[in-house]
Amino acid sequence: QICNQHNAEAPNLEQALHRMAQTEPNLDHDVSWFLLPSYWAKMVVALISFLCFANSYDGDFVFDDSEAIINNKDLRAETPLGDLWHHDFWGSKLSSNTSHKSYRPLTVLTFRINYLFAGGFYPVGFHVINIILHCTISVLMVDVFSILLGGLQFSNKGRRLNLAPKTSLLAALLFAVHPVHTECVAGIVGRADLLCALFFLLSFLGYCKAFRENKEGHNFSMFWVLVSVILGAIAMLCKEQGITILGLNAVFDALVINKLNVLELIQKLLHKDKSLENAGLLRKGLLFRITLLMSGGASILYIRWRIMGTGPPAFTEVDNPASFADSLFVRAINYNYYYSLNAWLLLCPWWLCFDWSMGCIPLIKSVSDWRIIALVALWFCLIGLICQALCSEDSHKRRILTLGLGFLIIPFLPASNLFFRVGFVIAERVIYLPSIGYCVLFTYGFSLLSKQAKKKKILAVAVLGILLINVMRCALRSSQWRSEEQLFRSALSVCPLNAKVHYNVGKNLADKGNQSAAIKYYREAVRLNPKYVHAMNNLGNILKERNELREAEELLSLAVQIQPDFAAAWMNLGIVQNSLRRFEEAEQSYWTAIKHRKKYPDCYYNLGRLYADLNRHIDALNAWRNATVLKPEHSLAWNNMIILLDNTGNLAQAEAVGREALELIPNDHSLMFSLANVLGKSQKYKESEALFLKAIKANPNAASYHGNLAVLYHRWGNLDLAKKHYEVSLKLDPMAPGTKENYNLLRRKLEQLQKKGS
C-alpha cells in the first residue's frame, strides 16, 4: 500500500526510511556509496553526463546525418510544415515503396528548428541540443531509479519520497556514463532516441503522479493517467519505441501499486480459483487502468498505421541477413545470438561500431558453431532472473527484478524482429532505453554483493573504477564521432568483415581526393560482399575518372545486372559507354536510368551532353531544359544551353536563357561569364563588362575570365584595359589557348599607334 510519510528535511527523511525498513528491506542499508541530497545528486549526474560527451559539441555531420538532415528537404523553410506529418524520418513520402516507414515528425521538427535558428547547416547547435537532452534524461533517471529501486511512497503533503538515495544515484550515474549511448548523443540522428527517452520517462513519472493523492490505494487521478498516455504518444512520434512505455506503466501498476504476485496469480488462473480479486487483479482500479492504457496504445498504433500505410518497409538481405534465412531454425538461432550481443554491449561496451551489418556478424547455420554458447549463457541468466522475479518469497526482490527485466526487455521488443523485420543487425542506439533495466539489475546486484561483502569500501571502489573507465570510454568514443574519417576507421578493428565499413572509409577518402587509397577500400568492400552495388558504382566512377574505362564498364554492368533498378549505376554506365564512343548503348543506358528515376536532372544533363556530341542540338537543348525544370539551380545545364546557343549563332536565344538562369542563380559566376560572352558578341559592351567584372570579383583567379574580358576591351577599343587583363590572364595561366596570340596582336597594335603618335 502507499504510505503517508512526511518528507521535510533530512531528519524526517531518515525517520521515513527507518519506518520503511520495518516493513520492507531497504536497498541502501548495506551499500557503501555517496549519500547526497536530491538536488546535489542531480547536479552531479548532470555534470558527469555533460563531461562524457562535451567533446562532441563541435563535431561534423556524420554517417546518417547527411540523409536525415543535410539532404532532408523537410528541414527547409520552403517545405510546408504539414509535409512533416506525411513524410518519414528521411524526408520521403510514407506512401513511397522506398520509404523505411520510420515516422518521427516531432524529431524532424526539432531538426528544422535547429536549422532555422542556425541559419543553415551548422552542426554545433544540433550537437549542443543532443548533449543537453542526454543530461536532462540522466537527471530524470535519479527520480525514475528512486521509484524502481525504492518503491513509490508519498508524504502526507503529496511529496514523493526517495527511499533509495544511494542506489538511485549509482544507477543514474551508470546510465549517464554508459558508452553505448555515444551514438545517440554524438550522432545527431540519435536525437530521435533522446527525445523518445525524454517523453518515455515523463510518461512514467506522470503515471506515478496519478497515485499521489491515494490514501488507501483505491483512488487515482484520471488526469495523470491520460497525461501519461499522451506523453507516450508524443514519445512514439519521436521514435517508435516510445509506445512501449504504456506496457511498462501497466507492469508498474500491477507490481508496485497493486503489489500483484504474478506466480500466485498464474497458479490461481490454472486452478480456476474464483478468488482472483484477492490476488489484486480487480482491486484499486487496476483492470480499468490497464484497459485505458491498452485502449490508448491501440488507438495510437491504429492512427500511425493509417498514416504510414499498410505496406511494410522495404529492407534488403544485407541490412538484416538473418530475417531472410529460409530456415526458421536459422532465423531463431541468429535472432537470439543478436540478443546476446546486445546484452554483451551493455555489460562490456568496449567494442562499438557505427554499423553492424554486411557480414560483420556471420550467420550461425549449425548447432556446432561455438557461438551457440552465447545463447546458452544469455538464456541461463534470463531464466534465472525470471525465476527469481516470479518465485522469490521476498516481495522487494520480486518487484525490483521484474521491473528491471521489464525495462530491459519491453523497450527492446520493437527491435527484436519478433513482430516485424527491422533494417539492422545490431544498432547501439536502440539500447538507450533498455539500458535502464540493465542499470537497475546491476545496482541491485551490487547491493546484494555489498550485503555479503566484509570490505564494502573495496567493492565501492571497484564500481567507482567502472564508472571512471566508462567516462573515459565515452570521451574517446565521442571524439571518434566528431568526424566521418575517425568514425569509419574506428570500425575497421571492430568489424573488419563489414563491407559497409570499408565502403564508407573509401567514400571518405574519395571525397578528400585520395582516389588511390579509396580504390583499395572499395575493392575490399566488393570482395567481402560481391553483390554490393553501391561499392561497385563508386569504384566504377573512380576508374572512369582515371580513364580505366573497360573495368569501370564491367563493374557498372554487373551492378545493374544485380540491381536492375539502380538508376545511378545506369547513368554512370551511360557516361562510360559515351566515353568509349558507343553512343547508342549510352543513350539506352541514360533512358533506362530515367525510367527507374523519373526526376533525375543529372541524367538529363549527361543525356544532353551525348546529344551535343552527336550534333543533335535540339535534343540536347530539350534534355538540358528538362534538367533545369527538375533542378532549377542546375548550373551546368544552364551553362551548356547558353554555350550551345552561342556556338550555333542563336545569340538572342542564348541571351534570354542566360538572363533566365541568372534570375534563378544570381550569384553563379560561371553563368555571368557565359552571358557576358554572349552580350559581348551582341556588342552590348557595357553590360558585358559589368558581368565580366562581377564574375572576376567572385572568382578572381580564373584566367579565362580575365582573357575574355581583355578580348571584350580589345573589340571595344579600350586597349590599355585589354593589355592589363591579358597580362593577368597569362600570369594565371601562361598556356591559356589564344590569349598569348591575342596579347601579341594587341602589343603590335599599340606599337603601331605609338609610332603614328610619334
TrEMBL record:
SUPFAM superfamilies: TPR-like
Pathway the protein takes part in: Protein modification; protein glycosylation
One Pfam match: TPR_19
TM spans (from-to): 39-57, 131-151, 163-182, 188-208, 220-237, 286-305, 372-391, 403-424, 430-449, 458-476
Keywords, alphabetical: Endoplasmic reticulum, Membrane, Repeat, TPR repeat, Transferase, Transmembrane, Transmembrane helix
UniProt key word Signal: no
GO cellular component: endoplasmic reticulum; membrane
PANTHER family membership: PROTEIN O-MANNOSYL-TRANSFERASE TMTC4, PTHR44227
Protein name from the UniProt record: dolichyl-phosphate-mannose--protein mannosyltransferase
GN (gene name): TMTC4
